[in-house]
Design a protein that fits this description.
The chain has a four-stranded antiparallel beta sheet with strand order 1-2-4-3, with helices on both faces. The two termini are about 25 Å apart. The protein is globular and about 50 Å long. The chain has a single domain (about 1-145), classed as NADH Oxidase (3-Layer(aba) Sandwich), CATH 3.40.109. Helix 2 packs across helix 4. The protein is about 30% helix and about 20% strand. The protein is an alpha+beta fold. The chain has helices at about 1-5, 20-30, 50-60, 85-105, 120-130; strands at about 40-45, 70-80, 110-115, 135-145. The protein binds flavin mononucleotide (FMN). Flavin mononucleotide binds near residues 8, 11 and 62. The site of flavin mononucleotide (FMN) has 10 residues, from strand 3.
Length: about 170
């Protein structure tokens, strides 16, 4: 509970490198996510190359924090491995959230930047990362050691809860 309640989007990062072991832990967390029919239709692209990171905000205006992030992970869905129609998006969202929570527990900062289904963004990411046509980039996570602190969000709202029927 402490980890979930303290997670916030972090968009300012120090210059300290995230280690390869930490990246492996984040990916272990991602692949521990639930998925429909246990299809695990996810693929992960790790980006550390500055030139690539700097190109993304050119077509994704809400990803400017990438210029100071240590690395990015792009969570992609393999639409050919999907369980029924469309569940792969939810599977990738679950994997994304696991990465955010794992990052928080490791003392790292992260922010989820949405890609799919924005048709002005995700095809450009597909092209930049040379993804095969069935591999759809769903989210991008900017990561690094945090250079800002945020209080827990306190969003609990009883009005959102409905018992038995609406
Ligand atoms: C699907 C999705 C897309 C998001 N896209 C962006 C984004 O493009 N850029 C960004 O800075 N934050 C993005 N966010 C982060 C939200 O702005 C953030 O989660 C929200 O404001 C709540 O703040 P918190 O994460 O600190 O609790 C996204 C979050 C989700 C779940």
């Amino acid at each position: 509970m402490e980890n979930i309640l303290s997670r916030r989007s972090i968009r300012k990062f120090t210059k300290t490198d995230v280690s390869d072991d930490q990246i492996t832990s984040l990916l272990k967390a991602a692949m521990s996510a639930p998925s429909a029919g246990n299809k695990q239709p996810w693929e992960f692209i790790i980006i550390k190359n500055r030139e690539t990171m700097n190109k993304i905000p050119e077509f994704h205006k809400y990803s400017k924090m990438l210029s100071i992030a240590n690395l990015a992970i792009v969570v992609c869905g393999d639409s050919t491995k999907a369980f029924k129609r469309g569940f792969w998006v939810q599977d990738c969202a679950a994997a994304t959230q696991n990465i955010l929570l794992a990052a928080n527990s490791l003392g790292l900062g992260s922010v989820w930047c949405g890609l799919y289904p924005d048709e002005e963004i995700y095809p450009q990411m597909q092209e930049l990362l040379k993804l095969p046509k069935d591999i759809i980039p769903v989210s991008l996570i900017a990561l690094g050691y945090p250079d800002e602190e945020k209080p827990p969000s306190e969003r609990f709202d009883e009005n959102k809860i409905h018992y038995e029927k609406w």
